[in-house]
Backbone:
């Protein structure tokens, strides 16, 4: 394990961004989000959460897929170069690190999504253990240890010192590139880590959603859960705004569209939302005509359909962003509780 | 692995007007031949830059080596555009997608009953012509095809000139309402199924409008067929074709990759959301 004093973090950022792009939580206009580091930016590494997850660094909100030129009856296909820039994303919390496992299941399964795979290959994840779980957080329900995130490098901050531990070869290579900047943490590092873990555990146990029970959500109950009459009441006030899907670190639905650039046609893909009315619209209608079906689809996917196809892995990491952002305060925790999840009293 | 969303180039080499709103397009690779191989019941994404991209079933049989055909009903932005284009137009194509009908599995050696309504004949035509090509591998073949009117029968000339001339293939046609110049059967497909009283053995392949499929299944069950004997092919909105864009699922199954062909007993286990 290595370490660096918290007040020397700007030096660490400089060093990390010298050879490659560095993304980390930045504060701009009172909003914290992942952004490209430069010395004049206001960093917010220890902010409790970011509005959006770092998903877009690997799966951008909009990205070009291929260009076309039309000439009479002829079409030219002009490929777009795959991403090939190395980058580091720093400060990723345990929940968001887990979200990449979920996204990997989608984008790295056959046929592999080349754009996502290239970014995963070129990106190095430096995670940061969480010491400020929010009241809206419930990562624990998915077996995520907030104090010990995965990633290529794992960090935690305690008593003014950032501790740094490489977990993968990629993480080790990054560590080696910081030669001279990081000091050996020695046995004190281990002690600090144990203390950090104990403190975080205590905070997690005091959270309102501690003990959230997911045992009712199993693939064999698919039909029963789908037909539960409670969906009607739960979905009644949903505005279909799609905020939950856009801030969600695991939502991966996308649209493919064409745009006239003035020089040709660009085919691009962009985030889409199952909450939108035209998501499944066809010439003869849609199988999900009201908000009830759309709302049910989102939660059934995360809690039943996705686990059914992925050895029980839920497509939710308990980051709490949708809980904080929903304009009508209807969210996955309420759905879990209403449909059979219980809170351990 | 090449990027799944990037299409290849084809060219439209023939266009046939089947009905007032259905045309059949022949697509070849630029240097001739097919863009890729497929199995009966599989689909392909067709697109025109700046207009749109959509999934269509491949109506030609894999045994045709020179081209692929798509029978397309005019019903939206892309299909309107396709209906206006001329021979020689280049087109974007990617595929094949989906599982197809189990022509080399469960259907092999079986008596086959095909039931189609309207444009629903398009995916079944691929299977029918495949089975005609490998005739010795299948038992009796019966085809029941219905449409709104005589003018709405897709592939009518091929049905008259080829299918009806084959020995061991029986074709039953019906139209919804009586019409001048039609001396065949008049009535909806499900009631015609009951009227003909098919022997409940072998396998049945059904495709047509959802309402026709629903009542046809009821008719088949009345005749003693079980859900395990009946196959259909589904259609939901698709963008990627490879199970990632997240919109064509029925429960935990993606129509683009786990379907589009489902056996009715499998389908009835899934939520009724299609």
Residues:
């Amino acid at each position: 394990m290595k370490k660096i004093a918290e007040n020397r973090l700007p030096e660490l950022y400089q060093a990390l961004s010298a050879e490659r792009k560095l993304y980390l939580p930045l504060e701009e206009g009172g909003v914290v989000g992942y952004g490209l580091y430069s010395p004049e930016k206001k960093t917010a590494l220890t902010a409790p959460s970011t509005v959006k997850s770092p998903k877009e660094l690997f799966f951008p909100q909009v990205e070009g897929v291929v260009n076309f030129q039309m000439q009479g009856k002829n079409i030219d296909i002009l490929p777009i170069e795959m991403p090939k820039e190395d980058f580091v994303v720093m400060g990723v919390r345990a929940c968001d690190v887990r979200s990449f496992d979920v996204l990997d299941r989608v984008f790295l399964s056959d046929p592999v999504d080349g754009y996502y795979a290239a970014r995963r290959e070129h990106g190095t994840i430096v995670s940061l253990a969480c010491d400020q779980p929010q009241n809206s957080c419930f990562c624990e329900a998915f077996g995520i240890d907030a104090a010990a995130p995965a990633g290529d490098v794992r960090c935690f901050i305690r008593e003014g010192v950032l501790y740094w531990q490489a977990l993968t070869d990629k993480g080790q290579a990054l560590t080696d590139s910081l030669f001279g900047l990081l000091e050996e943490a020695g046995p004190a590092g281990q002690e600090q880590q144990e203390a950090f873990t104990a403190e975080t555990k205590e905070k997690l146990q005091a959270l309102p959603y501690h003990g959230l029970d997911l045992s009712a959500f199993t693939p064999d109950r698919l039909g029963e859960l789908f037909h539960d009459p409670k969906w009607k009441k739960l979905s009644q006030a949903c505005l279909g705004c799609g905020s939950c899907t856009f801030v969600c670190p695991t939502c991966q639905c996308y649209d493919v569209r064409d745009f006239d650039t003035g020089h040709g046609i660009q085919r691009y893909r962009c985030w889409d939302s199952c909450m939108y009315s035209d998501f499944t619209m066809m010439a003869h209608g849609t199988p999900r005509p009201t908000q009830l079906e759309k709302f049910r689809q989102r939660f059934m996917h995360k809690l039943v359909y996705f686990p059914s196809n992925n050895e029980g892995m839920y497509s939710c990491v308990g980051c709490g962003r949708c809980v904080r952002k929903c304009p009508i305060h209807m969210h996955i925790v309420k759905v879990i509780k209403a449909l059979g999840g219980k809170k351990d009293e | 692995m090449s990027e799944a969303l990037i299409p290849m180039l084809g060219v439209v080499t023939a266009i046939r007007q089947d009905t007032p709103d259905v045309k059949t397009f022949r697509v070849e690779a630029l240097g001739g031949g097919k863009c890729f191989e497929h199995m009966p019941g599989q689909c392909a994404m067709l697109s025109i830059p700046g207009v749109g991209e959509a999934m269509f079933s491949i109506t030609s049989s894999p045994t045709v080596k020179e081209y692929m055909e798509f029978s397309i009903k005019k019903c939206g932005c892309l299909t309107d555009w396709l209906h206006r284009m001329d021979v020689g137009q280049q087109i974007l194509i990617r595929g094949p997608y989906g599982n197809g009908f189990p022509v080399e599995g469960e259907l092999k050696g079986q008596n086959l009953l095909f039931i189609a309504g309207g444009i629903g004949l398009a995916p079944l035509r691929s299977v029918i012509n495949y089975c005609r090509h490998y005739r010795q591998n299948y038992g009796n073949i019966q085809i029941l095809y219905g449409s709104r009117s005589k003018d709405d029968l897709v592939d009518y000339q091929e049905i008259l000139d080829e299918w009806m001339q084959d020995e061991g293939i029986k074709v039953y046609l019906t139209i919804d309402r009586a019409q001048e110049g039609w001396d065949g059967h008049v009535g909806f497909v499900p009631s015609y199924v009951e009227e003909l009283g098919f022997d409940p053995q072998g396998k049945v392949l059904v495709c047509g409008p959802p309402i026709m499929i629903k009542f046809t299944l009821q008719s088949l069950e009345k005749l003693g067929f079980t859900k395990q004997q009946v196959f259909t092919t589904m259609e939901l909105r698709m963008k990627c074709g490879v199970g990632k864009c997240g919109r064509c699922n029925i429960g935990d199954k993606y129509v683009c990759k786990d379907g589009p062909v489902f056996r009715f007993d499998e389908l009835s286990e899934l939520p009724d959301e299609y």
